[in-house]
Design goal:
Elements (H helix, E strand, L loop, with lengths): L8 H11 L10 E4 L7 E6 L4 E6 L3 E2 L3 E5 L3 H16 L7 E5 L4 E5 L5 E2 H7 L6 H15 L7 H10 L3 H13 L15 H8 L2 H16 L3 E3 L8 E3 L4 E3 L6 E3 L2 H17 L6 H32 L11 H26 L5 H4 L4 H20 L7 H11 L1
Antiparallel strand pairs: 1-2, 2-3, 3-7, 4-5, 6-7, 8-10, 9-12, 10-11
Helix pairs in contact: 4-10, 9-10, 9-11, 9-13, 10-11, 11-13
The protein binds 5-S-methyl-5-thio-alpha-D-ribofuranose (SR1) and magnesium ion (3 copies).
The site of one magnesium ion (MG) has 4 residues, from loops.
Length: 397
C-alpha cells in the first residue's frame, strides 16, 4: 500500500477555490511550498494580489517520512487551538478560514507582513515590547483555559478535546529523555561532548529533569501552545502572531513560559558567536530587557486576572493564588533549562546556535547555553524574582 502523499499543486488550487471565495481564477494561482517546521507541509497560494496559507498533515513526520508515524488528529487540535487563541486575545494568531477534517487540511490567513521571530533576532532586529506582549498573551491563554475561569465540567471537557497523546509522547522523549542520556538521536558537537557526558552523569540535574517530566505528563492545568519557540512567533516591529500549535495540550502553565524564555536565552547565548563586542553587548542587553518584560508581564497579568476573580471557589483560600503563581515560576525556570539543553545537544537544534560560522565561537555559545540550562534546572526554586534570573544569567557568563 502506498503512503498518503502531499496534495499536488493542482489539487491545492482546486481545494482553495472550493473552500474560500478569496480568488477569481483558479488557473492564475501560484503555489509555493514554504514548509519550515519539522512536522507538516505548508504552502502559500497566491494570485499576485491575495494569498492564503494551506497546511496539510500527513500520518508521519515530514522531515523523517513514514519511519516516524504521527496521527493526523494533530491538525484538528491545531485548528481548534488557533481559534481559542484568537478568542482569548483577538488577532493573536492567523484566522482559520476553513478546516477540512477528511483531508487533514487547514486553510488560514496569510500573515505575510509578519516575520519569524527567530530569524528577526538572528538578523539583529529588535522588535519593541515583544516580551511584554507575549507575556500578556500567555497569561490570558492560561487563565482563560484554567479552573480559575472554567467550571469543573467545562474544564474537563476542554482537557479531553485537547488530548494529544502521540505529540506529547514525542515531547516527553525529545525534551526530557534523549538529551539527558547518550541517545543515538542526539546531535552533540565535538566542542561540548565532554560537557554533555558530565550532565549525563549528574544525578542532581537528572532528578530535577525527572520531576519536571512528571509535571509535564500529569499537571493538566491550562491549555498550552506546547511548542512555543521563537520560530512559532511571527512579528512586525510592534505586533505579533502565534502560529503552529499542533503540540497543544493541557499541561503545566510553566511549560510555555519556560520554552519561550529558553529561546530568548538561546538567542542571548548565540551572541557569543559575534566578533563585534559592542553589537553583542547591545543585543544581549535588549534580550535581557525582553526576558524581564516577558516574565513580569506574564505574572503581573495572571495575578491581575486572579485578583479580579477572587470570589472563585478555587481562590477562596487566602494565599492559594500566590502559591500557584510561585509554582508556575519555579517550573518555568526548570522547563527553560530543559528546552535549552535539548536545543543544544538533542535532535532538534536551533539556527541561532547552528548558524555560528566560527567553530570556536560556536562552542563557546553552546557551552554558555548548557551552563545556563543546568543552572536554571538546579536553581529553579531560588529564582523567585526577575532580578534573581538576571543575576543567574550574569553569573553564567
Ligand atoms: C522530531 S520533532 C522535533 C521537534 O520539532 C517540533 O517543532 C517540536 O519542537 C519537536 O520537539
Ligand atoms: Mg513549527
Ligand atoms: Mg510545528
Ligand atoms: Mg492574594
Amino acid at each position: 500500500m502506498t503512503a498518503p502523499q502531499p496534495l499536488n499543486d493542482q489539487e491545492i488550487r482546486a481545494f482553495v477555490c472550493r473552500h474560500t471565495d478569496v480568488f477569481q481564477d483558479q488557473q492564475m494561482l501560484q503555489v509555493e511550498e514554504i514548509s519550515d517546521g519539522n512536522i507538516n507541509f505548508v504552502y502559500r497560494v497566491s494570485d499576485g494580489q491575495n494569498s492564503v496559507i494551506l497546511k496539510q498533515a500527513l500520518p508521519y513526520i515530514r522531515i523523517i517520512g513514514e519511519g516516524w508515524p504521527l496521527p493526523v488528529d494533530r491538525i484538528r487540535i491545531e485548528a481548534q487551538a488557533l481559534g481559542f487563541f484568537n478568542m482569548c486575545s483577538p488577532n493573536s494568531s492567523p484566522e482559520v478560514l476553513h478546516f477540512e477534517r477528511s483531508q487533514h487540511v487547514i486553510l488560514m490567513e496569510d500573515i505575510g507582513d509578519y516575520h519569524n521571530l527567530r530569524h528577526v533576532l538572528i538578523r539583529g532586529d529588535k522588535p519593541t515590547s515583544i516580551g511584554s506582549q507575549l507575556g500578556q498573551f500567555l497569561a490570558m491563554l492560561h487563565y482563560t483555559s484554567s479552573d480559575f475561569l472554567l467550571d469543573s465540567i467545562a474544564k474537563k471537557c476542554m482537557v479531553a478535546s485537547y488530548l494529544n497523546p502521540q505529540l506529547c509522547s514525542i515531547s516527553e522523549e525529545v525534551y526530557f529523555l534523549d538529551p539527558f542520556c547518550d541517545h543515538e538521536r542526539n546531535n552533540v558537537s565535538q566542542g561540548v561532548r565532554s560537557m554533555a557526558q558530565a550532565l549525563w552523569q549528574d544525578d542532581e540535574l537528572k532528578l530535577g529533569v525527572t520531576q519536571l517530566r512528571y509535571q509535564f505528563m500529569n499537571d493538566a492545568q491550562v491549555l498550552l501552545h506546547g511548542d512555543l519557540h521563537t520560530g512559532s512567533v511571527f512579528v512586525t516591529q510592534s505586533a505579533f502572531k502565534v502560529i503552529d500549535p499542533e503540540f497543544a495540550f493541557y499541561g503545566p502553565a510553566g511549560f510555555d513560559l519556560g520554552v519561550l524564555l529558553a529561546n530568548l536565552l538561546l538567542s542571548y547565548a548565540s551572541q557569543v558567536g559575534k566578533s563585534h563586542v559592542a553589537q553583542r553587548d547591545e543585543t544581549q542587553a535588549y534580550l535581557i530587557d525582553q526576558i524581564e518584560q516577558l516574565v513580569n508581564s506574564y505574572f503581573g497579568e495572571f495575578d491581575a486576572l486572579l485578583q479580579a476573580k477572587i470570589n472563585d471557589p478555587v481562590l477562596q483560600q487566602q494565599g492559594f493564588d500566590t502559591l500557584f503563581l510561585a509554582g508556575v515560576r519555579e517550573s518555568a525556570m526548570g522547563f527553560a533549562g530543559i528546552e535549552m539543553t535539548r536545543r543544544t545537544i538533542g535532535i532538534a537544534h536551533v539556527a541561532d546556535l547552528d548558524e555560528i560560522e566560527d567553530d570556536e565561537r560556536k562552542t563557546l555559545a553552546e557551552m554558555l547555553s548548557l551552563t545556563l540550562a543546568a543552572s536554571l534546572i538546579k536553581q529553579r526554586t531560588k529564582l523567585t524574582t526577575t532580578a534573581d534570573l538576571a543575576a543567574l544569567i550574569k553569573d553564567c557568563q
